[in-house]
Design a protein that fits this description.
Layout lengths: L2 H21 L57 H7 L4 H14 L7 E7 L3 E8 L2 H11 L11 E4 L3 E2 L5 E8 L3
Antiparallel strand pairs: 1-2, 2-5, 3-5, 4-5
């Protein structure tokens, strides 16, 4: 088929569709002419409404748990990073090498300083100190970046900062290493 013939067929199909939409509802349309409203009817007098029955409040029973005299069992305490670190023995050879690597990576901290680094078998405790929260926050940003311990430690847990007697802030970080 030639492109012209296809164009003519397409135009005819479109025109046929438009005509069908325009004419499809013609048989249902009301005849043209003025619209006449029905004459108003006289309403019948309404009977007075019956009084509504009185509602009484019924108390909803509240569920209650049965009381027992036996004590509830205590859940076992999950070990914290501090507990895990405290129970590890120090691997002197690995610890010295890892401490040296951590101190080298964190020597460039600004706003805070790495006060102490102590490693055991798979975990290291790092103590960061700073004069203010802003400096401590900047140091934590470095600690959690590729310039810090990302790539060395497999996980890290931070403690809440504590304020020392001299006004400085101290924070402990427990880093876990895959060996």
């Amino acid at each position: 088929m030639s492109p012209r013939l296809l164009a003519v067929i397409a135009i005819a199909a479109i025109a046929g569709g438009i005509a069908w939409f325009a004419l499809r509802d013609r048989g249902d349309a009301p005849p043209p002419g003025p619209i006449v409203a029905p004459a108003p009817t006289k309403p019948e007098p309404a009977a007075p409404p019956a009084p509504a029955p009185e509602r009484t409040a019924v108390p909803t029973p509240q569920p209650s748990l049965p009381t027992t005299d036996r004590p509830t069992p205590a859940l076992p305490k999950a070990p914290t990073p501090v507990d895990l670190y405290a129970h590890e023995q120090r691997d002197v050879e690995w610890a010295k090498e890892t401490e040296r690597e951590i101190e080298k990576k964190l020597a460039h901290l600004s706003g805070a300083s790495l006060e102490e680094t102590e490693c055991h078998q798979t975990q290291c405790k790092l103590t960061l100190t700073s004069a203010d929260e802003k400096g401590l926050g900047a140091a934590l940003g470095v600690l959690q970046s590729p310039q810090g311990l990302v790539g060395l430690a497999s996980s890290m847990m931070l403690t809440a900062p504590t304020k020392r007697a001299d006004g400085t802030l101290a924070l402990n970080a427990y880093a876990t290493f895959e060996r």
